[in-house]
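Hi L., both proteins are below.
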Amino acid sequence: MTFRKIIFLTFFVLLKIAITAQPEVNPKFLKQLNLVPIGIANTYMFKYEVSNLNYIEMMFFAQKKDPDLYQEMLPDTLSWRNPLGYNEKFVEYYFRHWAFKNYPVVGVSHDQAIQYCALLTEFLNKNIIINSKEIEEVVVRLPTEFEWETAARAGNPFKVYPWKGETIRNEKSGIFQGNFVVGFGDQITNSGALNDGMDITTPHDAYYPNDFGIYNLGGNVAEMLAESGLSKGGSWFHGPVQCRIDSLIHYSYPESWLGFRYVVEIVKYRNKEVRSTPINAKIIDKNLVFMDSTLHQKSYNMGGEIVNITPPSFYLSSIETPNSWYNLFLDEIKQTSLDDYNRCVPDKNLWDSTTTILNYKEYVNQDHFQDFPVVNISKDAAKLFCEWLSNKYNQDANRKFQKVSFSLPTLKEWQFIATVLLEDFYTYSFKKGQIKYLANVHPSDINYFSRVALEDKRYKSFYDYPKEKPFISRGLDGYEMLCPVNCFKMESTNFYNLYGNAAEMVADDEVAYGGSWRTHIESLHPNLNYNYIYPSPEVGFRIVMRVIEE
């Protein structure tokens, strides 16, 4: 099996994980709205380019709200005019004639496309989503470049074109697989209408869909991205090079070759709000592992004096503290102290600088995130949680120990953990021809591996990621960001996510250890840490327990 094929199979399996990690949505709902999952949590893409009919429907919806808005949304039909050709029939008829109803709308600006998405958001939430038993709110928007490429690759990281196969012609029929031209300006000869069937645009459901069921991602019209002035996919006016998935086409104003499609992001689920999860001494004990320091003594020579730095034995949680535990804590302190409650509520606005996926705004409150680690909280909030957990345990009649104390691990305890558990730990393995990632970090993509010769005849190796996509490989381990606390179990231990996922606070220093989902895989080492002063989407915590009375 070739390395290329191994990478493909690994990526495909991880993509399946990413798709199934989000809550299930009724297939009838997706079919009704012509949406398909693209392997990004809570995000679904419209399987067609937005047609003239789609656009006109939203214009009439806008007219009911504000007649001026209707005028503002009118496409620039003059975009069809060309000094080298007679296109007046398209100026006059393309947008309004019924024969072109299923052709992609063109001549619209980036602002008009955004306005369309805003109107469709309002329409769906008021008229369609209100009848859904699963979904409470959605947002319609233009796709980011990463989302568009993910949809175009359809699970194959090596894909060159958005359609099936690796060539521009269908292997059986020999005709082109999309609406584009081989020679620029040659829309009507053998590389244009007589070969691909069209001299300009084509209906939005023409040609075969890709493996995700999405039509015309390559050719027909280039598609605007959320990033202003950028489009992808090529068009009837462009050649096959511009149809490549990695190609980017710039624009400054409406064009006859430029259209758009949208994604629908679910930002809130109905009846999926957090459910209180009971927690008691038995559940807590089940997740604790005894760290016997007498078996692993460690000392340093300090000025000629041998100093033992091994901490007393303690119990360490096998998992990072999940949202489900933290939410129960919030529910209870809300009844006793609103001040403490307000200090401990995670800051959801911190997601703004991390992701455009709006569903993360409700990260701590959504049912499908309850097994994920709590983040975006202060160290004081984590300490209050530990005090609450200590009281809860010590009041449980079925507790194992008479009296215990929960806290964050000390710096010495974390260094002990790193020495015992992490020194010989690797973040991935390669067995039987398969790559297996062992931690939720930021993997490296071999497609971007590069090296340059230095003056002293040595080589410098590095990963040359595109400037606009520095995090393109972050999802290769199955998760772009955080994962459930019971993922990535360390072999031969009972611990999960000691490396990666959420970096973990310590009690007596302003640092977090272990790296996070954002840490590059090459940067990880047992004592990796970075300064932690404020709450962050990268930082959570793991508890330790000390027995006070047996």
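That was the first. Here is the second:
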Amino acid sequence: MTVSSTTSKVSYTATSSQTVFAYTFKIFANADLKVYVNSVLKTLTTDYTVSGAGVTSGGNVTFGTGLTASDIVVIERVITLTQGTDYVENDPFPADTHEEALDRLTFIGHQHQDTLDRSIKFATTVTDAGDVEIAATAAIRANKLFAFDASGDLDVTQEIGVFKGNWAASTAYVVRDLIKDTSNNNIYICITAHTSTGAQPISSNTDVAKWTLIVDAATAASSSTAAAASATAAATSATNAATSETNAASSATTATNKAAAASTSETNAASSASSASTSASSASTDLASFQGQYKSGATDPYSSKDAGDLWYDTANSVLKVWTGSAWNAPVTDAETAETNAGTSATNAAASATSASGSASTATTQASNASTSASNAATSETNAASSASSASTAKTAAEAAQAAAELAADNFDDTYLGAKASDPTVDNDGDALTSGDMYFNTGTDRMRVYSGSAWADVAIDSATVVSKTSATGSGVLPASTTANRDGSPSAGYIRFNTTDTSFEGYDGSAWGAIGGGATGGGADTVFWNNGQTVTTSYSVPANTNSMSAGPTITINSSVVITIPSSSHWTIV
């Protein structure tokens, strides 16, 4: 038959109790089908039977038990990769047998194409796919990720590098090493291999460009401190504002009281004026007493004092009263007016005039009291404004503190600190997330959470020199002369497979590395070689080899091969 269709798979969504499902392509035997229900492979005869083998249009798969509604059924042709047709010389050559063999090959091609269509691969336009083979063993691949190395070749690696603990000077760091800056608790990852110098903090170290900051603990701590200080200042401002408000209210009360006292003084002064005329008869008798109780001067004019004596201090323009133990100053105008009005009875000639003056003074005091009340109201308004400003400042400080605390909490939820075993939740008791890290104090290793399991943070195997064991050998890079580094630096070392020798770069050229001794100067003078060849050896083509003689012994069965384009000289 001809093969005009590439269909080799069908799928169905079952109805309730459905048992029969058709396939629409040819098979050669019942076992050429694989049948899946909800992605589970079923067993021929045990779970289902097949009809229509050898029929071009296909046949049916019949289940012994009806399926559940919405079950997904997939029927796929999978032919064994064998060839069962045997052509015998001079036997008949039947077309059906030959055509069936061709059909089988075509079906196998469909089968391979279906596998290729479901694989991950480079686009046709990609011309530099590189090395896509993975040579790492299962033990090396365990808990690693697929990645591409610096050359674009496929490799297995870890997302983050090895935690090296606290930063230290004179330490060789490689790419992806993680360290902690103990001066501010910041976490850095190495982006350029180097030997550390200088001191912390890393932010001001000469090697800062060789690190990348991944956890900024210093900024979080500074923000938290600043927020706490702002909150304290705001609380102080609020307290001060409340005190100002209280003082303003007290001032307003005092002003009101003074206004009432001034009004009372005015009334008393008027009464004193009326009494002045009646008191005129006793004026001369009491004048001497008044002169003994009221004096003026720049200094204390009294040699002996009684409680109630008055002194007008001309140096300070203040009226003072003797309390019995000290001069009390100042005496308010209203109180002075009242005292003068009572005393004016002793001075008949001046009492009327003094009483009138006292009334005028009392009126002025009332006006002053009114002004004080107005000022107190203004103070109260200002205090309320200060309280509002303090409340605003406190709100801003609380917001800053909340932001700082959130940043610190986020850091605390990602780096969980030092622990003796793998944690199952973060430091807040919440579920772990991909990228969470902690330091295992039992193994002294940094560990990272992949989203489902903890794993040691590992180095990139493509960028470091490994060793065979703790007491074994270092595994140096080995390749041809053509694969030398394009821009080498002094100190590079490798094994050259073209020359079959170790070589190093001195800063200007590559040179072989071997034994020998130096002479009296800087030049190499003595080169040593053995006297017995114990292993067969082939001199490379187009190469001249030399050994120091005069005698070189070649052991039996050992063969030295010298191509026609090469020479071996014994000197």
